[in-house]
Specification:
This protein is of the alpha/beta class. Helices cover 51% and strands 18% of the residues. It folds into 2 domains: 2-132, Rossmann fold (3-Layer(aba) Sandwich); 135-214. It has helices spanning 19-31, 42-52, 68-76, 95-104, 116-127, 135-142, 153-164, 168-179, 183-197, 201-210; strands at residues 2-4, 11-15, 35-39, 56-60, 85-91, 108-112, 131-133, 150-152, 212-214. The strands form 3 sheets. The chain has a 5-stranded parallel sheet, sandwiched between helices. The radius of gyration is 19 Å and the shape is elongated.
């Protein structure tokens, strides 16, 4: 499982009015070793800056009370926060809108739904952090060979997408569906569920890369 390399530390503040979005992004960041706090709007984010002193702030563009754009502008007016990186987060937008966000003062733009790789690359690009992989997680993932198993094409793709998007609720539904395929599939589902509980989506994707994708016949 990916984690901040030794000697690197990051504090992040997440502002989004949707609880599920906050939880997903906070979960991704926490799993790689980032210290995280979350708030519900831009004003709360500005207030929290005074206490938390984050290295990076993730601001949802559309929020009540104070939206992400205005919160970023007020943050940029303060000399003491000049070193703080600010990333805009929003649903997919047109290219000219993305460029508008960046030219207005944001350091990065991150699409929703969140993708683990994009979050990691954002931290690396803006903060210069590096990552490492825990040996124990790698060893656990590599200990069992699942390449002889196959999954229905649709189920395989659904599981992969859920892992890529960090959709733990949807993934649990698909794991329950997998358990109905037989004993070995139940064992695989149990293993993937253990990884899910550790938020090790990369481990899940690695295993899915080994499992065959087959169209099952009725």
């Amino acid at each position: 499982m990916r984690h901040l390399a030794s000697g690197h530390s990051v504090k992040a503040l997440v502002a989004d009015d949707v609880a599920e979005n906050r939880e997903i992004l906070q979960g991704m960041l926490t799993d790689i070793g980032v210290g995280v706090e979350s708030v519900e709007d831009g004003q709360q984010a500005l207030d929290r800056l005074e206490i938390f002193h984050p290295d990076i702030v993730f601001l949802d563009i559309r929020m009540p009370v104070l939206d992400g754009m205005e919160a970023m502008r007020q943050l940029r007016q303060e000399e003491r926060w000049k070193e703080v990186k600010v990333a805009a987060i929003s649903a997919s937008v047109l290219e000219h809108e993305r460029e508008e966000f960046l030219s207005s003062g944001f350091d990065a733009f991150i699409d929703k739904p969140f993708r683990f790789e994009r979050i990691c690359s954002c931290l690396a690009e803006l903060l210069g952090v590096e990552f490492e992989y825990g040996e124990s997680e790698e060893a656990t993932t590599a200990a069992i060979d699942w390449s002889h198993l196959s999954l229905p094409l649709a189920l395989h793709d659904q599981l992969r997408e859920a892992a890529e998007l960090y959709s733990v609720t949807e993934m649990e539904d698909y794991l329950q569906e997998m358990e109905e395929l037989g004993e070995e599939h139940r064992q695989l589902a149990t293993h993937l569920r253990d990884l899910k509980q550790k938020h090790d989506m990369e481990g899940i994707l690695q295993i899915l890369g080994e499992v065959q994708r087959e169209q099952r016949e009725d």
